[in-house]
Amino acid sequence: MSFITRKRAIVGLLAAAVAAAGAMTAFAFFTGGGTGSGTATVASDSVVNINGVGFNGQVYPAHGTPVVFTLSNASPSVSLSVGSVIADTSTFTNGIESLPAGCPDTDFSFAPVTVTTELGPGSTLVKTGTLSMTDASTNQDSCKGGTPTLHLITKNP
After folding, report:
1. Quick check: helix, strand or coil at residue 18?
2. CATH number at residue 65
3. pLDDT tens-digit readout, 108-118
4. Which domain holds residue 58?
5. Is 94 part of any domain?
6. Distance (Å, rounded) from C-alpha 9 to C-alpha 16?
């Protein structure tokens, strides 16, 4: 075999060996999984305040008087839903206290006020309800000159 032919044969064999080595080379890699987590904060209850409860007249048997009050959302960032405003009967009968001796608090009632709204952060809303005194068909003189205090609460839908 001539030198050139031999050289070509060697080069050819080397090329074939490199190609075969490349074909047999395995590519390896790893796959990886991962997990992650984060913590969020759920807002706490915010408060709707009932301020400026005022009476626009006197109360007497079989007569009611308008009660004006302001609802205010104390939260700077959360809207709050309010369904209605009712007398707070959790402590006082019909939500009434500070009556003269002998004047029954059961003679008074506050009609629920439907609000059904969402108060935006820091917003206020003025509403009007009615405080009534029933006609008990008995002498109610013990209530004369009384200054009842009305306690109100919000009720959510």
Report:
1. helix
2. 2.60.40.10
3. 999 999 999 99
4. 48-155
5. yes
6. 10
